[in-house]
Design brief:
This protein has about 90 residues and is of the alpha+beta class. The chain has one helix and seven strands; from the N terminus they run ββββαβββ.
Length: about 90
């Protein structure tokens, strides 16, 4: 099984699809962190994370992306996405 370092990006929007504002009125675009994961378990991991977040924030729209860093282009490439509202996993 292949392990890879993924950058996980979680975007949370309100029930109307608007970005959440912090206490100063600034838009909060996303939460990001890096984690080593088994690629074969990606759908399960993203689905589990989305279900946990939905339990805490049931009226929010949640999108999770897993990206890898491309050393040639020096950018992140999105490899997987999970759309909690649609219960849809996408392998890019």
């Amino acid at each position: 099984m292949k392990r890879e370092n993924y950058n996980i990006r979680i975007e949370v929007r309100d029930e109307n699809g608007k970005l959440i504002l912090d206490e100063n009125g600034n838009k909060q675009i996303s939460i990001q962190y890096d984690v080593d994961m088994l690629t074969d378990n990606m759908e399960y991991n993203l689905r589990h994370l989305a279900n946990t977040l939905k339990a805490w924030m049931p009226n929010r729209q949640i999108t999770i992306e897993a990206s890898v860093f491309n050393t040639i282009s020096r950018t992140y490439m999105t490899m997987f996405s999970f759309y909690a509202e649609e219960n849809r996993f996408v392998k890019h």
